[in-house]
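Please, structure for the following, as tokens.
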Amino acid sequence: QVQLVESGGGLVQAGGSLRLSCAASKNIFDINRMAWYRQAPGKQRELVALITAGGSTNYADSVKGRFTISRDNAKNTVTLQMNSLKPEDTAVYYCKGDVFGASRREYWGQGTQVTVSS
């Protein structure tokens, strides 16, 4: 079992930046894919960005060019650098880890609130 703990959320003005971190309780080297999701009030949870064990990344169209996901296997952390924030980025952001294969598993953090004021 792996526990994921997010941090770094808060209140920021539009155009500002925040850096979210996801700390894992165990080695993330064996987690095939790490991702950030977000959920705004009244909306479904959506994928924001993902990074594979090999370092490949993918982003939602709405955040391309503004957000950057990275992982540090040595520190068991995944970060999401968010720049040029917009009010529509306001949401609870969740970290997720996926293990694929015969023993498929998924892990979720508890979420961190990001609020962008206009």
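The chain has no helices and eleven strands. The chain has a mean pLDDT of 95.
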